[in-house]
Amino acid sequence: MLKEKESKMSEEKKTFEEALTELENIVRNLESGRVQLEEAVNAYEKGMALKKMCEDRLAEAKGRIDKLVINHQNEITGKEPLDVESC
């Protein structure tokens, strides 16, 4: 139980790039087909946790990006949340 908490805390400290690289390595390893069943299941579970962490970090970053509002004189008059779907 303690080891699981330590592992989770360690995962939360990873940067997005570190988590993505680790996830890519897990996928590559699983796709190779040279992994024992138990190891594959553990890697899959870790991969899913890393995937969720990456998605959460991306959503957080997306929420911090604002679109500048410019008037007809090309002056910045404010900002509003960026709607990535409409870009």
What this model shows, in words?
The protein has a single domain, classed as Helix Hairpins, CATH 1.10.287. Helices cover 66% and strands 13% of the residues. It has 3 helices and 2 strands. It has helices at 2-13, 16-32, 37-64; strands at residues 66-70, 76-81. A two-stranded antiparallel sheet has the order 1-2. Helix 2 (16-32) runs antiparallel to helix 3 (37-64).
Query: What is the domain tally?
Result: 1
CATH class membership: Mainly Alpha
- CATH topology, by name, is Helix Hairpins
Strand content: 5-15%
Features:
87 residues, alpha+beta, Helix Hairpins, 3 helices
Q: What's the topology here?
A:
Layout: H1 2-13, H2 16-32, H3 37-64, E1 66-70, E2 76-81
What is shown here, in short?
This protein is an alpha+beta fold and 87 residues long. The chain has helices at residues 2-13, 16-32, 37-64; strands spanning 66-70, 76-81.
